[in-house]
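[SOLVED] Predicted holo structure with orotidine-5'-monophosphate

Edit: marking solved, answer below. Original request kept for reference. I posted the sequence and ligand SMILES and asked for the 3D complex as structure tokens.
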Amino acid sequence: MTPAPIAVALDAPDLETAARWASLVTPHVSTVKVGLELYLRYGPDVIASVRGASGVRVFLDLKLHDIPNTVAGATRAVARLRPAILTVHAAGGPAMIQAAVEAAPHTKIAAVTVLTSLSAADLAAIGVEGTPEDAVRRMAVMSVEAGATALVCSPHEVAAVRAAVGPSITLITPGVRPAGADSQDQARVATPEQALADGADLLVIGRPITASPDPGATAASIAASLRRS
Ligand SMILES: O=C(O)c1cc(=O)[nH]c(=O)n1[C@@H]1O[C@H](COP(=O)(O)O)[C@@H](O)[C@H]1O
């Protein structure tokens, strides 16, 4: 069976746990995601550990955000690990996004628009004007014009972003919670079925899978529910 379009966020405190989660979920999902917690602790070695024997796609979520020259150097430093996807913050602006794209020709650069943990009130507090959807759409269009071929947004904005950027851009949505699950620190959430129906290409799901008693079975069950929807 084709693995489901899910990136499991391996936000684990240690490498053994991350590698175990990766091996449990990889028969069912297309991608595993390595973020700051693991990468800052273990560095590049973590990529080979979670890739394991299966050779699953690795999404490196470092959310780079600095001046263009620094982001170009950081992107080059990790491009040799050949992650399928690397994140940068859209708020770094077009020159920074373009620098990342040029530094990693074999990796999809995904621009993170507005973090899914931010509410409308949080956006106002940091001085971003308009609704979250307006801000996400603005940043999405700017990022694609700068060369990003993937975008990260919440399921709430994915339909509007799809309409704005067209079919060829990969849309990635964290903030995904199966019906009835706790949203925890996420502010803009929807179910996996809804996110996919609204146009997402890849769903990022962490704790609903990794904190469950049986991550492999939970990943399989979410994957099956997507096939039925
Ligand atoms: O870039 C990301 O992956 C990301 C962007 C965003 O706006 N919100 C967001 O939650 N994420 C990541 O997606 C994952 C969500 O994990 P859970 O909330 O446990 O499902 C975490 O690893 C976050 O770092």
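OP edit: The chain has a mean pLDDT of 97. Thanks to everyone who chimed in.
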